[in-house]
Design goal:
Oligomer: single chain
Structural class: alpha+beta
Strand order of the largest sheet: 3-6-8-9-10-12-11
Radius of gyration: 25 Å
């Protein structure tokens, strides 16, 4: 016990020494008020304290789309060097979690710049941070796995991103970005609440895993007109394809030519039965279902990121994650705008593999979806991070211009919306592919009984989800019985 007490005292002395060096008594402008830095730290969230060289502010110019294109974006973005310290109030101590050190290219420090497109037009800017030395800024205890140079500061969005990434995880998409809620101080000015988030990039250990030499991460991008390098879309010219990996200034001419062929073949395949040779149907269905769950109404169809592990013929195009929830929860009673262009072709295709997967994914999760989301939100509300976020909302209101409300209200708004959305979506998807439609021809009839028996006997292909008629997770004789009863009107249709 004495040894343990000695260790605790030693740690406290060390942390106190670090904090003293950083001086948490400095004054910070919070809207029209002034506060001591330690008072912001005391709210409980990590505080990113950024001081740039000569207090230079990141800037950008604003640009509108040329004729025939869409959107607003930014250009002439300045990348400003500086130092970043991350504080958090732990116990009775304002602890230093991270200190980048002063800026020295490729050695220490960081740079910060404004990022985004239309999101950059508001008073509160989103930012990109680039460290000069890799670090896991989310402090997950495995530095070798999670360290990276590139991080984002996304604006607080009333828990839309929190729930969106939870849906991403429930759908088991290849990568779910991680983030923490934080407060940001830049050059002595409190900027408000942000989400310190992993960026979309290649990192085989912890982000998107594609081959270093022949892999690609790309985006169907309505802002392609603001990029130097892109490949053309044949079916949706307002949405050409831009690159996340390799970066645009690193792409060779032969790589650009190869990706033009990949994109053309992909888009052409959507109008025929062989699209399954080009795309990973599971991730495409999960991505589209995710935005339908979210009720996304982004006019650009939300950020559509794709990846291709390498340039071999066996490597299919995947959709690795959901991203951008600014326009989530905008429709309770209609499909998301993901049902345009590429995805509409998949829904209309005579090859119903995509529809089968889409419907099956929903039926796999629908019985527990609402309770899972509700429990998740309520648990966050009562967590230490939730309590710290709630304590910081008043400060955010001072700089963001809104009247702050309690976090409980944000949580309940989300829960009420998903309850309504769940009911509508469940009806629509059931109508798309009725339960018991084993052969997926759009109707339930005697042929489905025969096909289900063949599946059980092992003499027919196993339909991945549609054969679990009673929804108990097991395919057995009870499913045949229920299907027969359903057709004979001896029992009601299987419950939702």
């Amino acid at each position: 016990m004495k040894k343990y007490a000695f260790i605790c005292v030693t740690i406290c002395i060390a942390l106190s020494s670090l904090v003293a060096k950083a001086d948490t008594s400095s004054v910070v402008a919070v809207g029209d008020s002034m506060m001591v830095l330690s008072d912001i730290i005391s709210k409980g969230l990590p505080v990113l304290y950024i001081q740039t060289v000569d207090s230079e502010e990141p800037t950008c110019d604003y640009v509108s789309a040329p004729a025939g294109c869409m959107g607003k974006s930014i250009t002439n973005v300045t990348k400003v060097p500086g130092r970043m310290i991350i504080y958090q109030h732990i116990g009775e101590i304002d602890s230093v979690l991270y200190d980048s050190g002063d800026y020295e290219k490729d050695v220490s420090g960081m740079t910060i710049k404004i990022r985004g497109n239309t999101s950059a037009y508001g008073t509160k800017k989103p930012y990109k941070i680039k460290l000069q030395k890799k670090q896991d800024l989310l402090f997950r205890g495995d530095e070798a796995t999670y360290k990276d140079k590139d991080w984002l500061l996304l604006k607080y969005d009333y828990l839309l991103t929190l729930v969106g990434f939870k849906v991403n995880a429930l759908l088991d998409l290849p990568w779910t970005p991680k983030f923490h809620f934080v407060s940001v101080v830049l050059n002595g000015n409190y900027k408000g609440l942000y989400m310190l988030c992993e960026s979309v990039k290649r990192n085989p250990d912890c982000r998107i895993n594609v081959d270093k030499n022949s892999g690609y991460i790309f985006e169907c991008d309505p802002y392609w007109w603001n990029e130097d390098v892109y490949v053309n879309s044949l079916t949706a010219p307002s949405y050409n394809f831009t690159f996340k990996y390799p970066e645009s200034d690193e792409i060779l001419p032969e790589q650009l030519q190869y990706m033009q062929t990949v994109v053309t073949d992909y888009e052409n395949s959507l109008n025929g039965p062989n699209y399954t040779d080009k795309i990973d149907v599971v991730t495409f269905a999960a991505w589209c279902l995710g935005h339908d769950i979210e009720g996304t109404q982004d006019s650009g169809g939300a950020n559509r990121y794709y990846c291709k592990y390498d340039s071999t013929g066996t490597s299919k195009i995947q959709m690795p994650l959901l991203w951008d929830f600014d326009m989530a929860e905008h429709t309770s009673f209609s499909w998301s705008r993901s049902h345009i262009k590429h995805f509409q072709s998949l829904f209309d295709n005579e090859n119903r593999t995509f529809v089968d997967e889409y419907v099956g994914l929903w039926r796999k999760m629908n019985k527990t979806f609402f309770s899972t989301i509700s429990q998740f939100l309520n648990s966050f509300n009562s967590s230490s991070e939730g309590r710290a976020l709630n304590a910081s909302l008043v400060l955010d209101g001072l700089v963001s211009g809104y009247t702050p409300t309690d976090l409980e209200e944000h949580v309940q708004d989300r829960i009420i919306w998903y309850k309504s959305r769940y009911r509508w979506l469940n009806r629509q998807i059931d109508a798309m592919n009725p339960i018991g439609d084993i052969n997926i021809d759009g109707a339930v009839n005697v042929s489905d009984i025969a096909d289900l028996i063949d599946v059980l006997l092992g003499s027919a292909r196993s339909y991945r989800y549609a054969n679990d008629v009673d929804g108990d997770g097991v395919i057995g004789i009870q499913d045949v019985t229920m299907l027969i009863d359903q057709l004979l009107n001896q029992t009601s249709s299987p419950k939702d």
